[in-house]
Specification:
280 residues, 1 helix, 2 domains, 38% strand, 13-stranded antiparallel beta sheet, 2% helix, 17 strands, Jelly Rolls, mainly beta, two-stranded antiparallel sheet
């Protein structure tokens, strides 16, 4: 029965009336290594919300039913706020919009290994309610790295080619970034120079050491924060981002990579398929 208006009934083959199965109860999706021939080919997760999950009791056995005993399983209501385990399950929002929601406690590991090299361009859009937070980071364990962050309301783009940090900065006007609006960023590393364009306004900086022009990384790309114990040579904050991100693109040698957040290698405190919409 669906919404009290549509219903359909089927009879079990050979009038079989006992579902003799014991196992883990999964809601919303199944583990990657789960295999079954009984439930059909659809194994991927639901993109949506589920609430008020109840299982209504029935006869324990055909023997109990035959003897007329009222031996039944008690009605069961699942408390989905405290599951035995969960994977990539986020919050439900009254209204949503396209993007990825970061709750301010974690990070997203987008790529396992990336070389920044001579030139690279990073573009993304964000909306936030905090004046501090990591947007994008990649670093080796020495001195080379690249980072985008918000610090005390100011957007900073750092690059270190190994000879010292180069920083382009942007201070927003008016209410700053905590205005409920989406803001666009394009951050370009051009050898020993950096360019930062925020909402159409450009800032630049360059290193006095023109010979130091390669950012030698072969390390993971983190978005919205990074794990404890991981060094980041081109960031000044470790505060995780709180808000929404979308349309992250990394361009190198005329090839653009669209980062798919729902295919991230590691996720903590991130909901990759929906953002809470701003109230009108």
């Amino acid at each position: 029965m669906v919404d009290g208006r549509y219903s359909k009934q089927m009879i079990s083959p050979k009038k079989a009336d006992l579902l003799d199965v014991v196992g883990v109860l999964y809601v919303g999706g199944l583990p990657k290594n789960y295999t079954s021939k009984r439930i059909g080919p659809i194994l991927y997760s639901i993109n949506g919300c589920i609430r008020n999950f109840k299982m209504v009791g029935g006869p324990v056995s055909t023997k109990a039913a035959a003897t007329g005993r009222s031996e039944v399983i008690e009605d069961f209501k699942l408390n989905m706020a405290t599951p035995t385990s969960s994977h990539m399950v986020g919050r439900c929002f009254v209204a949503t919009e396209t993007g990825t929601y970061f709750d301010g406690t974690g990070f997203l590991k987008a790529v396992s290994s990336y070389r920044v090299g001579l030139d690279v361009s990073i573009a993304l859009e964000f909306r936030t309610s905090k004046t501090n937070g990591v947007l994008f980071a990649i670093s080796n364990q020495a001195n080379d790295g690249l980072g985008l962050e918000i610090v005390q309301g100011k957007l900073l783009f750092h690059v270190d080619n190994g000879a010292g940090r180069i920083t382009a900065e942007h201070m927003p006007e008016g209410e700053g970034f905590c205005d409920g609006q989406w803001h666009s960023i394009t951050a370009n590393k051009l050898r020993h120079r950096v360019e930062l364009v925020v909402d159409g306004k450009e800032s630049q900086a360059e290193s006095p050491n023109a010979r130091s022009n390669t950012c030698d990384t072969n390390d993971p790309i983190y978005v919205g924060g990074y794990p404890d114990g991981v060094r980041q040579a081109a960031l000044s904050t470790s505060t995780s981002f709180r808000g929404c991100l979308r349309n992250l693109k990394i361009t190198k040698a005329s090839k653009t990579m669209d980062v798919q957040f729902n295919k991230a290698l590691e996720i903590k405190g991130v909901q990759p398929l929906s953002c809470p919409a701003v109230a009108a």
